[in-house]
Amino acid sequence: MRNVGIIFKKEIDSYFVSPVAYLLLTMFGLIFGFFFWNAVSYFVMVGIESQMRGGGGPMNLNEYVIRPLLSNVSVVGLFFIPMMTMRLFAEEKRTGTIELLATSPIRDIEVILGKWLAAVALYGCMLLFTAVNFAFLFRYGNPDWKPLAVGYLGLLLQAGGLLAVGTLISTMTRNQIIAGAATFGVCLMLWILEWVSGYETAAWAQVLAYCSVITHFESFAKGVIDSKDVVFYISLIFLGLFLTSRSMESLRWRS
Amino acid sequence: MITVEGLTKRYARTVAVDNISFQVQKGQIVGFLGPNGAGKTTTMRILTCFLPPSEGKATVAGFDVLEQPMEVKRRIGYLPETPPVYPEMEVSEYLSFVGKLKGLSGPNLARRVDEVSERCAVADVRHKLIGKLSKGYRQRVGLAQAIIHNPDVLILDEPTAGLDPKQINETRDLIKGLAGDHTIILSTHILPEVEQTCEQVIIISKGRLVATDSVHNLQNRARGAETVLVEVAPRDSAPFEQTVVQRKLEQVAGVSRVLLRDASPARAVFEVESLKDKFIRGDLARAVVESGWNLNELHTTAMSLEEIFLQLTGSEPAAAAAETPGEAQ
Fold it and tell me: Is the ipTM of this complex over 0.90?
Protein backbone atom coordinates (compact mmCIF):
# COMPACT_ATOMS: atom_id res chain seq x y z
CA MET A 1 0.00 0.00 0.00
CA ARG A 2 2.85 2.33 0.86
CA ASN A 3 4.40 1.68 -2.53
CA VAL A 4 1.13 2.49 -4.30
CA GLY A 5 1.19 5.81 -2.48
CA ILE A 6 4.76 6.56 -3.62
CA ILE A 7 3.90 5.92 -7.27
CA PHE A 8 0.58 7.78 -6.93
CA LYS A 9 2.32 10.87 -5.55
CA LYS A 10 4.99 10.76 -8.24
CA GLU A 11 2.38 10.57 -11.00
CA ILE A 12 0.24 13.36 -9.53
CA ASP A 13 3.37 15.52 -9.25
CA SER A 14 4.26 14.84 -12.83
CA TYR A 15 0.73 15.72 -14.02
CA PHE A 16 0.85 19.00 -12.14
CA VAL A 17 4.50 19.91 -12.70
CA SER A 18 4.03 19.69 -16.44
CA PRO A 19 1.33 21.72 -18.17
CA VAL A 20 -0.65 18.52 -18.83
CA ALA A 21 -3.04 18.77 -15.89
CA TYR A 22 -3.59 22.51 -16.25
CA LEU A 23 -4.22 22.23 -19.95
CA LEU A 24 -6.71 19.38 -19.54
CA LEU A 25 -8.49 21.07 -16.65
CA THR A 26 -8.71 24.41 -18.46
CA MET A 27 -10.05 22.88 -21.64
CA PHE A 28 -12.54 20.81 -19.73
CA GLY A 29 -13.56 23.81 -17.61
CA LEU A 30 -14.26 25.87 -20.72
CA ILE A 31 -16.18 23.11 -22.46
CA PHE A 32 -18.24 22.24 -19.44
CA GLY A 33 -18.88 25.90 -18.67
CA PHE A 34 -20.31 26.24 -22.15
CA PHE A 35 -22.51 23.18 -21.71
CA PHE A 36 -23.71 24.49 -18.38
CA TRP A 37 -24.52 27.92 -19.75
CA ASN A 38 -26.48 26.34 -22.61
CA ALA A 39 -28.38 23.97 -20.35
CA VAL A 40 -29.32 26.69 -17.90
CA SER A 41 -30.32 29.15 -20.66
CA TYR A 42 -32.48 26.51 -22.25
CA PHE A 43 -34.04 25.73 -18.87
CA VAL A 44 -34.82 29.40 -18.27
CA MET A 45 -36.29 29.83 -21.75
CA VAL A 46 -38.54 26.81 -21.41
CA GLY A 47 -39.54 28.02 -17.97
CA ILE A 48 -40.54 31.47 -19.24
CA GLU A 49 -42.44 29.99 -22.17
CA SER A 50 -44.46 27.64 -20.00
CA GLN A 51 -45.27 30.51 -17.64
CA MET A 52 -46.47 32.67 -20.53
CA ARG A 53 -48.71 29.84 -21.66
CA GLY A 54 -49.94 30.02 -18.16
CA GLY A 55 -49.58 26.51 -17.07
CA GLY A 56 -47.25 23.61 -16.69
CA GLY A 57 -46.23 22.02 -13.49
CA PRO A 58 -43.05 22.90 -11.61
CA MET A 59 -39.95 22.17 -13.66
CA ASN A 60 -37.28 19.88 -12.38
CA LEU A 61 -33.66 21.12 -12.37
CA ASN A 62 -32.38 17.58 -12.03
CA GLU A 63 -34.19 16.43 -15.10
CA TYR A 64 -33.60 19.46 -17.30
CA VAL A 65 -30.10 20.51 -16.34
CA ILE A 66 -28.16 18.01 -14.27
CA ARG A 67 -29.06 14.85 -16.15
CA PRO A 68 -28.15 16.02 -19.66
CA LEU A 69 -25.02 17.67 -18.32
CA LEU A 70 -23.82 14.49 -16.66
CA SER A 71 -24.35 12.63 -19.92
CA ASN A 72 -22.32 15.31 -21.67
CA VAL A 73 -19.47 14.92 -19.18
CA SER A 74 -19.54 11.20 -19.74
CA VAL A 75 -19.07 11.70 -23.48
CA VAL A 76 -16.53 14.53 -23.23
CA GLY A 77 -14.57 12.32 -20.86
CA LEU A 78 -13.98 9.89 -23.72
CA PHE A 79 -11.87 12.56 -25.40
CA PHE A 80 -9.90 13.50 -22.30
CA ILE A 81 -9.15 10.04 -20.97
CA PRO A 82 -6.60 9.11 -23.68
CA MET A 83 -4.63 12.25 -22.84
CA MET A 84 -4.47 11.22 -19.20
CA THR A 85 -3.24 7.69 -19.74
CA MET A 86 -1.10 7.82 -22.86
CA ARG A 87 1.95 8.97 -20.92
CA LEU A 88 1.72 6.54 -18.00
CA PHE A 89 3.85 3.66 -19.26
CA ALA A 90 4.83 4.71 -22.77
CA GLU A 91 7.00 7.50 -21.37
CA GLU A 92 8.70 5.21 -18.83
CA LYS A 93 9.44 2.74 -21.57
CA ARG A 94 10.84 5.38 -23.89
CA THR A 95 13.17 6.99 -21.36
CA GLY A 96 14.20 3.71 -19.73
CA THR A 97 12.92 4.64 -16.27
CA ILE A 98 10.82 1.48 -16.45
CA GLU A 99 14.08 -0.29 -15.61
CA LEU A 100 14.24 1.60 -12.34
CA LEU A 101 10.69 0.61 -11.41
CA ALA A 102 11.17 -2.98 -12.53
CA THR A 103 14.37 -3.43 -10.53
CA SER A 104 13.09 -1.80 -7.35
CA PRO A 105 11.53 -3.89 -4.59
CA ILE A 106 8.01 -3.00 -5.65
CA ARG A 107 5.39 -5.20 -7.28
CA ASP A 108 4.10 -4.56 -10.79
CA ILE A 109 0.56 -4.31 -9.52
CA GLU A 110 1.59 -1.57 -7.07
CA VAL A 111 3.06 0.46 -9.92
CA ILE A 112 -0.06 -0.08 -12.00
CA LEU A 113 -2.46 0.80 -9.18
CA GLY A 114 -0.48 3.93 -8.29
CA LYS A 115 -0.52 5.16 -11.86
CA TRP A 116 -4.17 4.28 -12.46
CA LEU A 117 -5.29 5.92 -9.22
CA ALA A 118 -3.38 9.08 -10.17
CA ALA A 119 -5.23 9.18 -13.48
CA VAL A 120 -8.55 8.63 -11.67
CA ALA A 121 -7.64 11.43 -9.29
CA LEU A 122 -6.96 13.77 -12.21
CA TYR A 123 -10.36 12.87 -13.62
CA GLY A 124 -11.77 13.59 -10.17
CA CYS A 125 -10.24 17.07 -10.36
CA MET A 126 -12.10 17.56 -13.62
CA LEU A 127 -15.32 16.63 -11.91
CA LEU A 128 -14.58 19.29 -9.29
CA PHE A 129 -14.89 21.85 -12.07
CA THR A 130 -18.39 20.63 -12.78
CA ALA A 131 -19.17 20.83 -9.09
CA VAL A 132 -18.31 24.54 -9.11
CA ASN A 133 -20.94 25.06 -11.79
CA PHE A 134 -23.53 22.89 -10.10
CA ALA A 135 -23.00 24.86 -6.89
CA PHE A 136 -24.82 27.76 -8.58
CA LEU A 137 -27.85 25.55 -9.08
CA PHE A 138 -27.94 24.85 -5.38
CA ARG A 139 -27.46 28.53 -4.58
CA TYR A 140 -30.32 29.75 -6.80
CA GLY A 141 -32.48 26.66 -7.11
CA ASN A 142 -33.40 23.62 -5.19
CA PRO A 143 -32.22 20.50 -7.00
CA ASP A 144 -32.01 17.11 -5.35
CA TRP A 145 -28.40 16.28 -4.46
CA LYS A 146 -28.80 12.50 -4.42
CA PRO A 147 -29.15 11.92 -8.18
CA LEU A 148 -26.18 14.22 -8.66
CA ALA A 149 -24.06 12.17 -6.26
CA VAL A 150 -25.10 8.98 -8.04
CA GLY A 151 -24.20 10.59 -11.35
CA TYR A 152 -20.71 11.43 -10.05
CA LEU A 153 -20.29 7.87 -8.84
CA GLY A 154 -21.24 6.65 -12.31
CA LEU A 155 -18.81 9.03 -13.97
CA LEU A 156 -15.97 7.90 -11.71
CA LEU A 157 -16.75 4.24 -12.36
CA GLN A 158 -16.96 4.78 -16.10
CA ALA A 159 -13.74 6.79 -16.17
CA GLY A 160 -12.08 4.17 -13.97
CA GLY A 161 -12.87 1.51 -16.54
CA LEU A 162 -11.72 3.55 -19.51
CA LEU A 163 -8.60 4.73 -17.69
CA ALA A 164 -7.75 1.09 -16.97
CA VAL A 165 -8.07 0.36 -20.69
CA GLY A 166 -5.88 3.39 -21.44
CA THR A 167 -3.28 2.22 -18.92
CA LEU A 168 -3.25 -1.17 -20.59
CA ILE A 169 -2.70 0.36 -24.02
CA SER A 170 0.08 2.56 -22.65
CA THR A 171 2.08 -0.51 -21.61
CA MET A 172 2.00 -1.80 -25.17
CA THR A 173 4.04 0.90 -26.83
CA ARG A 174 6.85 3.33 -26.15
CA ASN A 175 5.23 5.95 -28.33
CA GLN A 176 2.82 8.25 -26.50
CA ILE A 177 1.02 9.28 -29.66
CA ILE A 178 0.28 5.69 -30.57
CA ALA A 179 -0.90 5.01 -27.03
CA GLY A 180 -3.13 8.10 -27.10
CA ALA A 181 -4.58 7.45 -30.54
CA ALA A 182 -5.27 3.78 -29.82
CA THR A 183 -6.92 4.60 -26.50
CA PHE A 184 -9.04 7.24 -28.20
CA GLY A 185 -10.10 4.73 -30.83
CA VAL A 186 -11.08 2.17 -28.21
CA CYS A 187 -12.95 4.75 -26.12
CA LEU A 188 -14.85 5.95 -29.17
CA MET A 189 -15.66 2.41 -30.18
CA LEU A 190 -16.97 1.60 -26.71
CA TRP A 191 -19.20 4.65 -27.04
CA ILE A 192 -20.71 4.05 -30.50
CA LEU A 193 -21.26 0.32 -30.06
CA GLU A 194 -24.54 1.30 -28.48
CA TRP A 195 -25.86 2.58 -31.85
CA VAL A 196 -26.54 -0.92 -33.17
CA SER A 197 -29.39 -1.25 -30.68
CA GLY A 198 -31.20 1.43 -32.69
CA TYR A 199 -31.96 -0.83 -35.65
CA GLU A 200 -31.16 -4.37 -34.62
CA THR A 201 -32.47 -6.51 -31.82
CA ALA A 202 -30.70 -9.79 -32.52
CA ALA A 203 -28.58 -11.37 -29.83
CA TRP A 204 -25.28 -10.14 -31.26
CA ALA A 205 -26.55 -6.59 -31.33
CA GLN A 206 -27.63 -6.84 -27.73
CA VAL A 207 -24.18 -8.09 -26.77
CA LEU A 208 -22.52 -5.24 -28.63
CA ALA A 209 -24.81 -2.68 -27.09
CA TYR A 210 -24.15 -4.17 -23.68
CA CYS A 211 -20.44 -3.54 -24.16
CA SER A 212 -21.00 0.14 -24.72
CA VAL A 213 -19.93 2.22 -21.75
CA ILE A 214 -22.62 4.78 -22.53
CA THR A 215 -25.50 2.31 -22.16
CA HIS A 216 -24.42 1.62 -18.64
CA PHE A 217 -24.22 5.27 -17.72
CA GLU A 218 -27.89 6.03 -18.45
CA SER A 219 -29.15 4.66 -15.16
CA PHE A 220 -26.53 6.64 -13.20
CA ALA A 221 -27.54 9.83 -15.00
CA LYS A 222 -31.10 9.22 -13.88
CA GLY A 223 -29.89 8.89 -10.33
CA VAL A 224 -30.37 5.14 -10.13
CA ILE A 225 -27.62 2.79 -8.95
CA ASP A 226 -28.23 -0.34 -10.95
CA SER A 227 -26.05 -3.20 -9.74
CA LYS A 228 -25.83 -4.55 -13.30
CA ASP A 229 -24.11 -1.35 -14.42
CA VAL A 230 -21.90 -1.16 -11.34
CA VAL A 231 -20.79 -4.71 -12.01
CA PHE A 232 -20.07 -3.84 -15.64
CA TYR A 233 -17.81 -0.91 -14.78
CA ILE A 234 -16.04 -2.73 -11.96
CA SER A 235 -15.43 -5.70 -14.26
CA LEU A 236 -14.01 -3.35 -16.86
CA ILE A 237 -11.65 -1.87 -14.25
CA PHE A 238 -10.53 -5.29 -13.07
CA LEU A 239 -10.10 -6.62 -16.58
CA GLY A 240 -8.12 -3.56 -17.67
CA LEU A 241 -5.80 -3.60 -14.66
CA PHE A 242 -5.35 -7.37 -14.77
CA LEU A 243 -4.41 -7.28 -18.45
CA THR A 244 -2.05 -4.39 -17.70
CA SER A 245 -0.19 -6.51 -15.19
CA ARG A 246 -0.04 -9.37 -17.70
CA SER A 247 1.23 -6.97 -20.32
CA MET A 248 3.92 -5.63 -17.96
CA GLU A 249 5.04 -9.14 -17.20
CA SER A 250 5.18 -10.04 -20.87
CA LEU A 251 7.45 -7.03 -21.47
CA ARG A 252 10.06 -8.83 -19.44
CA TRP A 253 9.77 -12.05 -21.32
CA ARG A 254 9.82 -10.43 -24.71
CA SER A 255 11.96 -7.32 -24.53
CA MET B 1 27.90 -12.91 -3.34
CA ILE B 2 26.84 -13.48 -6.92
CA THR B 3 26.65 -16.92 -8.46
CA VAL B 4 25.73 -17.53 -12.06
CA GLU B 5 25.37 -21.06 -13.36
CA GLY B 6 24.69 -22.06 -16.94
CA LEU B 7 22.86 -18.83 -17.62
CA THR B 8 21.24 -18.67 -21.03
CA LYS B 9 18.97 -16.03 -22.52
CA ARG B 10 17.32 -16.63 -25.85
CA TYR B 11 15.34 -14.08 -27.80
CA ALA B 12 13.06 -14.94 -30.67
CA ARG B 13 15.85 -15.24 -33.20
CA THR B 14 19.09 -14.86 -31.30
CA VAL B 15 20.86 -16.24 -28.29
CA ALA B 16 22.03 -13.23 -26.30
CA VAL B 17 23.71 -15.10 -23.48
CA ASP B 18 24.88 -18.65 -23.92
CA ASN B 19 25.59 -20.89 -20.94
CA ILE B 20 27.59 -18.46 -18.81
CA SER B 21 28.84 -19.35 -15.34
CA PHE B 22 30.87 -17.25 -12.95
CA GLN B 23 31.12 -16.22 -9.33
CA VAL B 24 31.82 -12.94 -7.65
CA GLN B 25 33.11 -12.77 -4.08
CA LYS B 26 31.94 -10.23 -1.55
CA GLY B 27 33.61 -6.83 -1.77
CA GLN B 28 35.14 -7.37 -5.19
CA ILE B 29 35.02 -5.05 -8.17
CA VAL B 30 34.47 -7.08 -11.28
CA GLY B 31 34.81 -5.75 -14.79
CA PHE B 32 32.41 -7.13 -17.32
CA LEU B 33 34.11 -6.85 -20.64
CA GLY B 34 32.98 -7.58 -24.14
CA PRO B 35 32.47 -6.10 -27.57
CA ASN B 36 29.24 -4.63 -28.80
CA GLY B 37 26.28 -6.97 -28.42
CA ALA B 38 28.24 -9.53 -26.43
CA GLY B 39 25.46 -9.94 -23.90
CA LYS B 40 26.77 -7.73 -21.09
CA THR B 41 23.58 -5.75 -20.68
CA THR B 42 21.42 -8.85 -20.93
CA THR B 43 23.40 -10.60 -18.20
CA MET B 44 23.12 -7.53 -15.98
CA ARG B 45 19.42 -7.29 -16.62
CA ILE B 46 19.00 -10.88 -15.55
CA LEU B 47 20.97 -10.26 -12.36
CA THR B 48 18.75 -7.28 -11.55
CA CYS B 49 15.58 -9.33 -12.14
CA PHE B 50 14.60 -7.12 -15.06
CA LEU B 51 14.70 -10.06 -17.45
CA PRO B 52 14.12 -13.69 -16.58
CA PRO B 53 16.75 -16.16 -17.81
CA SER B 54 15.72 -18.76 -20.38
CA GLU B 55 17.84 -21.36 -18.66
CA GLY B 56 20.26 -21.60 -15.80
CA LYS B 57 20.37 -20.11 -12.36
CA ALA B 58 21.54 -16.82 -10.96
CA THR B 59 21.66 -15.95 -7.29
CA VAL B 60 22.49 -12.66 -5.63
CA ALA B 61 23.37 -12.72 -1.94
CA GLY B 62 21.97 -16.23 -1.78
CA PHE B 63 18.59 -15.37 -3.31
CA ASP B 64 17.48 -16.74 -6.65
CA VAL B 65 16.53 -14.07 -9.19
CA LEU B 66 13.52 -16.04 -10.35
CA GLU B 67 12.22 -17.35 -7.05
CA GLN B 68 12.87 -14.48 -4.67
CA PRO B 69 13.11 -11.39 -6.86
CA MET B 70 11.96 -9.03 -4.08
CA GLU B 71 14.83 -10.09 -1.83
CA VAL B 72 17.28 -9.69 -4.70
CA LYS B 73 15.93 -6.27 -5.65
CA ARG B 74 16.27 -5.07 -2.06
CA ARG B 75 19.98 -5.88 -2.17
CA ILE B 76 21.01 -4.46 -5.52
CA GLY B 77 21.60 -1.00 -6.85
CA TYR B 78 21.42 -0.76 -10.60
CA LEU B 79 22.58 1.91 -12.99
CA PRO B 80 21.36 1.04 -16.50
CA GLU B 81 23.09 2.26 -19.62
CA THR B 82 20.94 5.38 -19.75
CA PRO B 83 20.44 6.76 -16.25
CA PRO B 84 16.78 6.13 -15.34
CA VAL B 85 15.97 9.71 -14.38
CA TYR B 86 12.81 11.77 -14.67
CA PRO B 87 13.66 15.06 -16.37
CA GLU B 88 10.77 16.90 -14.71
CA MET B 89 12.03 16.15 -11.19
CA GLU B 90 14.57 18.02 -9.11
CA VAL B 91 17.65 16.05 -8.14
CA SER B 92 16.80 15.82 -4.43
CA GLU B 93 13.17 15.07 -5.21
CA TYR B 94 14.25 12.27 -7.52
CA LEU B 95 16.70 10.79 -5.04
CA SER B 96 14.13 10.78 -2.30
CA PHE B 97 11.60 9.18 -4.68
CA VAL B 98 14.04 6.38 -5.43
CA GLY B 99 14.92 6.09 -1.75
CA LYS B 100 11.27 5.59 -0.90
CA LEU B 101 10.93 3.00 -3.67
CA LYS B 102 13.82 1.11 -2.12
CA GLY B 103 12.13 1.17 1.25
CA LEU B 104 13.79 4.09 3.05
CA SER B 105 11.68 6.54 5.01
CA GLY B 106 11.72 9.40 7.49
CA PRO B 107 14.97 10.93 8.79
CA ASN B 108 16.92 7.97 7.46
CA LEU B 109 15.79 8.84 3.94
CA ALA B 110 16.74 12.50 4.27
CA ARG B 111 20.15 11.54 5.66
CA ARG B 112 20.84 9.10 2.81
CA VAL B 113 19.78 11.66 0.19
CA ASP B 114 22.29 14.10 1.68
CA GLU B 115 25.01 11.48 1.90
CA VAL B 116 24.74 10.20 -1.64
CA SER B 117 24.43 13.63 -3.19
CA GLU B 118 27.59 14.59 -1.31
CA ARG B 119 29.37 11.41 -2.31
CA CYS B 120 28.44 11.59 -5.98
CA ALA B 121 29.14 15.32 -6.14
CA VAL B 122 25.64 16.36 -7.11
CA ALA B 123 24.93 18.33 -3.94
CA ASP B 124 25.46 21.64 -5.75
CA VAL B 125 22.68 20.90 -8.25
CA ARG B 126 20.23 19.29 -5.88
CA HIS B 127 17.53 21.85 -6.56
CA LYS B 128 17.91 21.83 -10.31
CA LEU B 129 15.64 19.97 -12.67
CA ILE B 130 17.31 16.81 -13.92
CA GLY B 131 16.26 17.66 -17.47
CA LYS B 132 18.50 20.74 -17.30
CA LEU B 133 21.61 18.86 -16.16
CA SER B 134 24.55 17.94 -18.35
CA LYS B 135 25.19 14.32 -19.25
CA GLY B 136 27.93 14.02 -16.65
CA TYR B 137 25.73 15.24 -13.83
CA ARG B 138 22.88 13.05 -14.98
CA GLN B 139 25.20 10.04 -14.92
CA ARG B 140 26.23 10.88 -11.38
CA VAL B 141 22.62 11.31 -10.32
CA GLY B 142 22.11 7.84 -11.76
CA LEU B 143 24.99 6.55 -9.66
CA ALA B 144 23.64 8.29 -6.56
CA GLN B 145 20.30 6.63 -7.22
CA ALA B 146 21.97 3.22 -7.38
CA ILE B 147 23.66 3.52 -3.99
CA ILE B 148 20.93 5.34 -2.09
CA HIS B 149 19.80 2.31 -0.10
CA ASN B 150 23.37 1.18 0.54
CA PRO B 151 22.93 -2.08 -1.38
CA ASP B 152 25.20 -5.08 -0.99
CA VAL B 153 25.59 -5.40 -4.74
CA LEU B 154 26.04 -2.65 -7.28
CA ILE B 155 25.48 -3.32 -10.95
CA LEU B 156 26.69 -0.56 -13.21
CA ASP B 157 26.16 -0.71 -16.95
CA GLU B 158 28.86 1.43 -18.56
CA PRO B 159 29.06 3.96 -15.75
CA THR B 160 31.55 6.17 -17.57
CA ALA B 161 29.92 6.24 -20.99
CA GLY B 162 29.58 9.74 -22.34
CA LEU B 163 31.63 11.47 -19.66
CA ASP B 164 34.61 13.72 -20.25
CA PRO B 165 38.06 12.50 -19.11
CA LYS B 166 37.97 14.40 -15.84
CA GLN B 167 34.53 13.07 -15.00
CA ILE B 168 35.65 9.58 -15.97
CA ASN B 169 38.49 9.78 -13.46
CA GLU B 170 36.17 11.10 -10.77
CA THR B 171 33.65 8.37 -11.44
CA ARG B 172 36.36 5.70 -11.31
CA ASP B 173 37.61 7.03 -8.00
CA LEU B 174 34.06 7.06 -6.72
CA ILE B 175 33.54 3.45 -7.77
CA LYS B 176 36.82 2.40 -6.21
CA GLY B 177 35.79 4.15 -3.02
CA LEU B 178 32.59 2.15 -2.97
CA ALA B 179 34.37 -1.20 -3.13
CA GLY B 180 34.78 -2.98 0.14
CA ASP B 181 31.30 -2.41 1.51
CA HIS B 182 29.77 -3.17 -1.86
CA THR B 183 30.26 -5.91 -4.38
CA ILE B 184 30.43 -4.20 -7.74
CA ILE B 185 29.94 -5.46 -11.27
CA LEU B 186 30.59 -2.89 -13.93
CA SER B 187 30.41 -3.38 -17.64
CA THR B 188 32.55 -1.45 -20.02
CA HIS B 189 34.32 -1.61 -23.32
CA ILE B 190 37.05 0.75 -22.20
CA LEU B 191 39.96 -1.52 -21.38
CA PRO B 192 42.20 0.76 -19.33
CA GLU B 193 39.20 1.32 -17.12
CA VAL B 194 39.15 -2.34 -16.20
CA GLU B 195 42.90 -2.40 -15.62
CA GLN B 196 42.59 0.59 -13.32
CA THR B 197 39.42 -0.18 -11.39
CA CYS B 198 38.76 -3.86 -11.35
CA GLU B 199 40.31 -6.76 -9.52
CA GLN B 200 38.67 -9.39 -11.60
CA VAL B 201 37.62 -9.50 -15.22
CA ILE B 202 34.90 -11.44 -16.91
CA ILE B 203 35.26 -11.35 -20.67
CA ILE B 204 32.34 -12.40 -22.81
CA SER B 205 32.00 -12.43 -26.53
CA LYS B 206 28.96 -13.34 -28.61
CA GLY B 207 27.15 -14.43 -25.48
CA ARG B 208 29.83 -16.87 -24.40
CA LEU B 209 32.20 -16.64 -21.50
CA VAL B 210 35.72 -16.28 -22.84
CA ALA B 211 37.74 -15.75 -19.71
CA THR B 212 37.26 -15.01 -16.07
CA ASP B 213 40.27 -14.28 -13.92
CA SER B 214 42.09 -11.55 -12.06
CA VAL B 215 43.60 -8.79 -14.19
CA HIS B 216 47.09 -9.86 -13.08
CA ASN B 217 46.63 -13.55 -13.89
CA LEU B 218 45.04 -12.76 -17.19
CA GLN B 219 48.04 -10.72 -18.24
CA ASN B 220 50.38 -13.48 -17.19
CA ARG B 221 48.37 -16.16 -18.84
CA ALA B 222 48.02 -14.44 -22.15
CA ARG B 223 51.66 -13.51 -22.15
CA GLY B 224 53.10 -17.00 -21.63
CA ALA B 225 56.01 -16.18 -23.85
CA GLU B 226 57.69 -12.91 -22.95
CA THR B 227 58.68 -10.12 -25.28
CA VAL B 228 61.89 -8.24 -24.52
CA LEU B 229 63.06 -4.97 -26.02
CA VAL B 230 66.84 -4.80 -26.35
CA GLU B 231 68.78 -1.68 -27.29
CA VAL B 232 72.37 -2.35 -28.34
CA ALA B 233 75.04 0.25 -29.07
CA PRO B 234 78.61 -0.10 -30.43
CA ARG B 235 81.53 0.28 -28.04
CA ASP B 236 84.93 1.69 -29.00
CA SER B 237 85.84 0.32 -32.39
CA ALA B 238 84.24 -3.07 -32.05
CA PRO B 239 82.53 -4.09 -35.33
CA PHE B 240 78.82 -3.21 -35.21
CA GLU B 241 76.45 -4.49 -37.83
CA GLN B 242 72.78 -5.07 -37.27
CA THR B 243 72.70 -8.41 -39.04
CA VAL B 244 75.56 -9.63 -36.90
CA VAL B 245 73.87 -8.48 -33.72
CA GLN B 246 70.62 -10.00 -34.80
CA ARG B 247 72.23 -13.34 -35.57
CA LYS B 248 73.94 -13.26 -32.20
CA LEU B 249 70.64 -12.65 -30.40
CA GLU B 250 68.93 -15.40 -32.34
CA GLN B 251 71.52 -17.85 -31.12
CA VAL B 252 70.59 -17.26 -27.48
CA ALA B 253 68.83 -20.31 -26.02
CA GLY B 254 65.08 -19.96 -25.73
CA VAL B 255 64.66 -17.18 -28.30
CA SER B 256 61.99 -17.77 -30.88
CA ARG B 257 62.11 -14.63 -32.96
CA VAL B 258 64.15 -11.42 -33.27
CA LEU B 259 62.81 -8.34 -35.02
CA LEU B 260 64.72 -5.20 -35.81
CA ARG B 261 62.66 -2.28 -34.62
CA ASP B 262 64.93 0.70 -35.05
CA ALA B 263 68.45 1.13 -36.35
CA SER B 264 71.03 3.84 -36.72
CA PRO B 265 74.86 3.78 -36.82
CA ALA B 266 74.85 4.55 -33.10
CA ARG B 267 72.34 1.99 -31.89
CA ALA B 268 69.91 -0.79 -32.79
CA VAL B 269 66.67 -1.76 -31.10
CA PHE B 270 65.41 -5.34 -31.31
CA GLU B 271 62.24 -6.96 -30.19
CA VAL B 272 63.02 -10.44 -28.96
CA GLU B 273 60.31 -12.99 -28.30
CA SER B 274 60.99 -15.98 -26.12
CA LEU B 275 59.63 -19.48 -26.48
CA LYS B 276 56.81 -20.28 -24.11
CA ASP B 277 57.85 -20.30 -20.44
CA LYS B 278 61.52 -19.52 -21.17
CA PHE B 279 63.39 -16.88 -19.21
CA ILE B 280 65.80 -15.21 -21.62
CA ARG B 281 66.68 -11.79 -20.23
CA GLY B 282 69.87 -12.90 -18.45
CA ASP B 283 71.22 -14.78 -21.45
CA LEU B 284 70.42 -11.91 -23.78
CA ALA B 285 72.35 -9.44 -21.64
CA ARG B 286 75.32 -11.75 -21.39
CA ALA B 287 75.35 -12.37 -25.15
CA VAL B 288 75.42 -8.66 -25.93
CA VAL B 289 78.10 -7.76 -23.41
CA GLU B 290 80.34 -10.73 -24.23
CA SER B 291 80.30 -9.71 -27.90
CA GLY B 292 81.80 -6.37 -26.89
CA TRP B 293 78.76 -4.14 -27.42
CA ASN B 294 77.02 -1.84 -24.99
CA LEU B 295 73.68 -2.91 -23.62
CA ASN B 296 71.78 0.38 -23.34
CA GLU B 297 68.41 -0.91 -22.39
CA LEU B 298 66.59 -4.16 -21.79
CA HIS B 299 63.02 -4.49 -20.62
CA THR B 300 60.00 -6.72 -21.01
CA THR B 301 56.86 -5.39 -22.54
CA ALA B 302 53.81 -6.63 -20.67
CA MET B 303 50.92 -7.48 -22.87
CA SER B 304 48.20 -4.91 -22.38
CA LEU B 305 44.71 -5.96 -21.56
CA GLU B 306 43.80 -4.63 -24.93
CA GLU B 307 45.93 -7.21 -26.70
CA ILE B 308 44.60 -9.94 -24.45
CA PHE B 309 41.10 -8.82 -25.22
CA LEU B 310 41.73 -8.89 -28.94
CA GLN B 311 43.38 -12.25 -28.64
CA LEU B 312 40.45 -13.71 -26.69
CA THR B 313 37.53 -12.19 -28.52
CA GLY B 314 39.10 -11.82 -31.92
CA SER B 315 37.48 -8.44 -32.43
CA GLU B 316 38.37 -4.82 -32.86
CA PRO B 317 38.05 -2.65 -29.76
CA ALA B 318 37.51 0.32 -32.07
CA ALA B 319 34.24 -1.23 -33.17
CA ALA B 320 33.28 -1.86 -29.59
CA ALA B 321 33.81 1.80 -28.82
CA ALA B 322 30.93 2.73 -31.07
CA GLU B 323 28.49 0.94 -28.84
CA THR B 324 24.93 2.11 -29.12
CA PRO B 325 22.45 2.23 -26.27
CA GLY B 326 20.09 -0.68 -25.90
CA GLU B 327 22.40 -3.24 -27.37
CA ALA B 328 20.28 -6.10 -26.11
CA GLN B 329 17.13 -5.15 -27.93
Answer: no
